[in-house]
Amino acid sequence: MDDVSTPPLLEVREATKRFPGVLALDSVRLKLGKGEVVAVIGENGAGKSTLMKILAGIQRLDAGEILLNGESIAIKDVQAALDLGIALIHQELNLSDNLDVGANIFLGREPARLGVIDRRTIDRRSATVLRSIGLDVSPRTIVGTLPIGKQQMIEIAKALSIEAGVLIMDEPTSSLSHHETEALFRVVKDLRDRGVSIIYISHRLSEVNELADRVVVLRDGKNAGELNRDEINHDNMVQLMVGRDVSQFYSRIPHEAGEILLEVKDLVSPAHPRHRVNFSLRCGEIVGVAGLVGAGRTELLETLFGVTPSLGGVIRIDGKIVDFKSPADAIDNGLALVPEDRKLQGLILEMSVGENIGLAGLWHNCHTSGFLNAAKEREDTDEMIRALNIRTPSARQVVQYLSGGNQQKVVLGKWLTLRPRVLLLDEPTRGIDIGAKHEIYQLMEELAKDGVAILFVSSEMEEILGMSDRTLVMHEGRVTGELNREQLSEENVMQLATGGVLTAAT
Amino acid sequence: MKRILGILLLLLAVLVGTAILEPDSFLSAYNLQNLTGWIGLFGILSIGVAFVIITGGIDLSIGSVVGLVGCLLPLFLVEHELSVPVALLSIVLISLAIGLVHGLLITKMRLQPFVVTLCGLLIYRGFSRWLTGDSTQGFGTGFKSLRYLARGKIPVPFVEDFALPIPFLITIGLGIVAAIFLNKTVFGRYLLALGRNEQAARFSGIKTDRMIILAYVICSFMAGLGGILFSLEINGVQPASHGEFYELYAIAAAVLGGCSLRGGEGSITGVIIGAALMRALYNSINLLGMPTELEFAIIGTVILVGVLADELAKRFAETRRARQQARVAASGTRN
Question: Using an 8 Å Cβ cutoff, are A414 and A360 in contact?
């Protein structure tokens, strides 16, 4: 690829992009050869998405240069990118559910005669493209009736129909089943063999391992390193992504687990009424919940917390049966939930840091016969800002102007004022920078040491491997297995998460 | 605070402008007492609806509740000869029950506030007309002491001729209680929080259903209270039209006063100023000899300009904040 005589198909030189408060890209370089699959990996916030948005014309560079076939190009908007043959397939699908496959593939550029859509041409050309990626779907099928995996393929077909030479795929497998993922891989490999160049973004390192010809690692908006085909392996990638030894990043001191605090027996959550969930949680223990997206992990936490009351089964705390009809009941029994979507469920974005931290505890410790105790509230808030190192100009700052990591700390602070005994965390470090991540891990450690029982859901394998004393793995609403520290490995987690069983080796 | 300042200036502009153009009729004690009295009556309704709007809801039934109460009070007192306390208590209970039903339908049945209270608007109006056979209701010449609640005036020390109407004082009193409730109690904080983000409020352990029901109960209670005063003031209630469109006046006053129909925003002071502005406009239109047919058009235009100015001011503040952040970022202090 580093052949001096022929320039790479696509090259990014010294790309720099600044957002208010963040340098999202800092002199980033990227080369992509014809028929090459380059994986771009990095922690959340490393700058992958920004780089891809720039290539796709959604955002523009502040400084730097993009070259196509050795010539400098300007990508001023999405249309310009498409005209140059660069297509981005978003993480979230951008299809119109209510229209059929053909209409989606040609959306916005329908072939027409005298202003009337030429449906026959659409059908003919759609069928050709669909056949080329081995997708057996009629152009007249309504997209909404197709499974997610096939919808993803439609997105690819759409990109191919404009004869894109560069295909950017942003986390394409995040909502696909194992089977669908395999089908996608076959298509990607086939496209590569036909000379299409692909930039593949994924958090799933095993996928990168399987697909990539080369790996470009970004960290904090900078190039952190590159791996050629023969250097690509899990450890090398992780090392470059986090920039330190994984074992160092997570302090793996096993916790002294105490008495059983929370016990769940035959619990039925409304989202997966056919399955019963059993597990227990001890004081001072950190238990991870692993599984693929849609495995029912969030639903389990929400049922435990009384958001969606259970349809059956028993929850015991200290051996006493409890029944939560609302989060208020769960909170009264010492539970706290840091929800998956902090902007939607965790925070009142337009309210201040202080008001958010105070919210859950108002009724418990900040009022005299209904009247707010402003002094106590301020005291609690200041304590949390200090203890959690929340970077904010003051307690009166509106939460929406804080960074993701600091927002998450506000959510945590809200609960810690109540001194919960069971802390439920749903993707606690999603979308936050590496520094804040580290602080949240430390906080989890400290709370566990103080005897808090922690149950955390995570889709990041490193987090599960690094943080849990014990791991529950879920698949389609069931707990398919429980792994102790000795059994805990990426392979075992993936086995159980995809509905398999552990091999005899354990 | 800034939002209130804008509308306060607008109110002063209308008052001063009218006073300059028509000093004799505007500044007469009769006119000022009349104006403050009506501000009081509409202020009560506006404070009530503000609570519902803060939760992100709406109450369209206020005018019909005013109409229903306006029919029931004379019926109870004159026709059925109930004692005054019993009649008033029954009306308060009926208003509370109306709010409770609205709240239950909206939270437990998950019906939309617009639909529930629109049906309320139709039902209470129809019921009032049927109950009275569409005939005018009043107290005749009786119930002087009761009617003092609506028509009475308290002389202001050191000011000759002018006396403050009781409804105005009631509104100020209720406004103070409402403002304390909204800003100084846990429940007020809960209402503001759930108006911004109901899901996050529920996830924080707030019993959002109960709080929303409470807001509708407050709103109907205030509508009932206002209805009592309106009927005492008017003493000749037409079941078919009494209170018509009052919900829209109340909602407009709340919006002018800084409530967002998206919920979570609003101040009681602002709402009372909003109600005052509505009445002041109406008063000016009459005094300045503008065609009264244009009344709605003028009030509508003022509200539109008001909310437009507010939106533009907000955008301006946002851009300025973004620029400032960009400057901070450029100067190299990264967080």
Answer: yes
Return the closest-CA partner of residue A387 out of A440, A328, A423, A309. A440
Structural domain boundaries in chain B: 2-312
Going by C-beta distance under 8 Å and a sequence separation of 6 or more, which residues neighbour residue B126? none
Q: Which residues pair with A88 in a beta bridge?
A: A168
Size of interface A-B (CB pairs under 8 A): 91
Residue B314: count of CB within 10 angstroms of its CB: 12
Contact A370 B187 (CB under 8 A): yes
- Choices 3.60.160.10, 3.20.20.70, 3.40.50.300, 1.10.530.10: CATH for A246-334+420-506: 3.40.50.300
Which chain A residues contact residue B322 at CB under 8 A? 20
Would you say A180 and A149 are in contact if contact means Cβ atoms under 8 Å apart? yes
A366 to chain B: closest CA residue: B186
Residues 6+ apart with CB under 8 A from B149: B166, B167, B170, B228, B229, B232
Q: Does the CB of B335 have a partner CB in chain A at under 8 Å?
A: yes
Q: Report the b/e string of A337-373 with b at 16+ CB within 10 A.
A: bbbbbbbebbbbbbbbbbbbbbbbbbbeebbeeeebb
Q: Which residue has the higher pLDDT, B316 or B101?
A: B101
The model's pLDDT over A408-444, given as tens digits with 9 standing for 90+, comes to: 999 999 999 999 999 999 999 887 877 788 899 999 9
- Preferred mutation among B55, B108, B186 to probe A, highest tally of A CBs within 10 A: B186
Q: Establish whether this prediction's ipTM goes over 0.95.
A: no
Residue B90 in this model has a pLDDT that exceeds 90: yes
What is the chain A residue with the closest CA to B205?
A: A328
Q: Are the beta carbons of A360 and B204 separated by less than 8 Å?
A: yes
For A338-355, write each residue's pLDDT tens digit: 999 999 999 999 999 999
What chain A residue is nearest to B194 in terms of C-alpha separation? Answer: A348
- Cβ separation A359–B325 shorter than 8 A: no
Residue A219, beta-bridge partner list: A222
The fold for domain B2-312 equals ABC transporter involved in vitamin B12 uptake, BtuC (1.10.3470)
